Amino acid sequence: MISDTPFKLAILISGEGSNLQAIIDAITRGTLDARIDMVISNKASARGLGRARQAGIPAVVVAAIKGQSREEYDQRLLDTLAPTAPDLIVLAGFMRILSADFVRFYKGRIINIHPSLLPAYKGMDTHQRVLDAGETWHGATVHFVTEKLDDGKTIIQSRIPVEPDDTAESLQQRVHIEEHVIYPRAIQWLRETLLQPAIDPL
Q1: Pairing between strand 35-41 and 59-61?
Q2: What are the residue numbers of the active site?
Q3: How far apart are CA 80 and CA 182, in angstroms?
Q4: How many CB atoms lie within 10 A of CB 80?
Q5: What residues does 141 pair with on adjacent strands?
Q6: For residue 170, what are the CA distances in angstroms to 50, 141, 164?
Q7: Domains of the chain with bracketed CATH
């Protein structure tokens, strides 16, 4: 049985916010039983901030300060998040690597979506790398965040065939469509199971 307690999300973004919008839309449709309490971006120019504000969600910029260490920046993130006490941190195109201290603080409660079929093609430029390698399948993975980049346990994947005329741009567009389906689905699954001790994010 699902608790009546709100499942509180904090979503971290850096840019367009299309996955943020997919999550907002899923909540609006009633297919995702969650509440977004805060959206944080490290960039004031992120279009996703406008998406959040249009939906009535508090949107905050925590910009990097020149000379500031990753640990110092992440402490500012922790301080910003603390009042909302989120149940889940959702990385939706957040283009920073989180420090070990941040990941440990929210251990088992941080997820990310990566544009590849992990464990293949960790890191950047996945669409072009898939094409260069002559792969026949590509896709997206929702996974728990650990101290190692793109290394946490997989929650859900979706795969698509690589077409003969695909470019990096066309692959990116088709993978985005899959991301917008599986990210809200993964969050809903966690809504139903996160508090159960059987889940091991490592």
Answers
A1: parallel
A2: 114
A3: 28
A4: 15
A5: 114, 157
A6: 26, 18, 11
A7: 8-113+144-157+180-193 (3.40.50.170)
Which residues lie below 8 Å from residue 125, measured CB to CB, with a gap of 6+? Answer: 168
- Angle among Cα 84, 21, 168 to the nearest 5 degrees reads 125
Alpha-carbon distance 82 to 60, whole Å? 13
Token match 């079929």: residue?
Answer: 117
0.85 surpassed by pTM: yes
Determine if the peptide bond prior to 58 is cis (ω within 30°): no
34 and 28 Cβ atoms separated by less than 8 Å: no
Q: What is the 3-state secondary structure (H, E, C) of the chain?
A: CCCCCCCEEEEEECCCCHHHHHHHHHHHHCCCCCEEEEEEECCCCCHHHHHHHHCCCCEEECCCCCCCCHHHHHHHHHHHHHHHCCCEEEECCCCCCCCHHHHHHCCCCEEEEECCCCCCCCCCCHHHHHHHCCCCEEEEEEEECCCCCCCCCEEEEEEEECCCCCCHHHHHHHHHHHHHHHHHHHHHHHHHHCCCCCCCCC
Compute the average pLDDT of residues 35-54. 97
- Report pLDDT digits (tens) over 112-161: 999 999 999 999 999 999 999 999 999 999 999 999 999 999 999 999 99
